[in-house]
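Box S1 | Example of a co-folding query
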Amino acid sequence: MNATQIIHSIPSDPLTGAISVPIYQTSTFIQEAPGVNKGFDYARSNNPTRKVLEDVVAKLENGDAGFAFSTGLAAIDAVLKLLSAGDEIIAVDDIYGGAYRLFTHVYEKLGIKVHYVDTTEASNIAKNISSKTKLIWIESPTNPTLKVSDIKEISKIAKSIDALLIVDNTFASPIAQNPIDLGADIVIHSGTKYIAGHSDLVAGLVITKTAELSEKIKFVQNASGAVLGPWDCFLTIRGIETLEIRYKKQCENAFKVAKYLVNHEAVQEVYYPGLATHKNHEIAKRQQNGLFGGIVSFTLKEDTQEEAVNVVTNTQYFKLAESLGGVKSLLCHPAQMTHASIPREIRLKSGIKDSLIRLSCGIECAEDLISDLSESLKSITKEKNSLFI
Ligand SMILES: *Cc1c(COP(=O)(O)O)cnc(C)c1O
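Box S1 (continued) | Returned holo structure for pyridoxal-5'-phosphate
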């Protein structure tokens, strides 16, 4: 969808003409007679403000229906509840840390086995298939090393074994990538990130491809009850109004920052799918609508946690915080923050080195972001130089 279509997919209020979506702050709805209502009976099952958000995100991802949850992890949890004990998942190896924790420490206990593989090579998936494989779970690009997997290719594998392909599309956002169009069955978003976009709420979204899946997710949403409240639904809708312009600016800033870092003497490696040197650049170019995202990760020549801490504590505009996708730039040290729950050897195997730093570029001026990093990286170099004086 282009910016016009996105903005005008958000309806004005048919009742009053209000141009913005009303916040229905209510738990229940009066019925004329038992079971006779205006389409709403109890706010866990449905709420008019949430319905607008859910309809808009379904359109954003070309799905059958959308569902809004209290957090991204609640959205992931709802999809996992489609499984039964004995089922297996094949998941991308550098999966979001919170998803790893949920898969491994909650669902494995309930009898669901997860195989973590490098999904950038589709053949790795084929090697781990069994008759019990029910879900293939990918993120593309991944967090934080920005690996890109070929969604179309993987969807063919999923179809051939009658498994569902789930794509966590948080990093690409619906602006860069629409996984359902590429063959995915379910799309997940942490709405907390780009979609709401202002670092002022937590939210999760599920978008389903078929009416059959919609019915199943709707059932879980109501049965488990982790719905998004009306106020946060309103803020998320308001965020969506500027999603396109924000995301494009963030991509532009990230590309400039990535190009700057590539040439910096203290930097070892830059991970950004827009760079021709990125391992999966060709796939990214093919499936991401010419947009490579607002996240840039990099490692330092001195690959230590101490060096990384030096960098992340010496910036002015890039604020040290978990999360990403907001209008203000953030940075973090995954080994000690977002991915602290992953054991070191597993973390290293999936490329999350000790000095890896993840940047989430906001919508500030690119020059300011670059000079901020330049100053921060200088402070390390200075320290180093002082050793020789
Ligand atoms: C943040 C994030 C999540 C979890 O979302 P919350 O809203 O924090 O629960 C899931 N997947 C990815 C890729 C994320 O970045």
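The chain has 14 helices and twelve strands. The chain has two domains: 3-241, 243-386.
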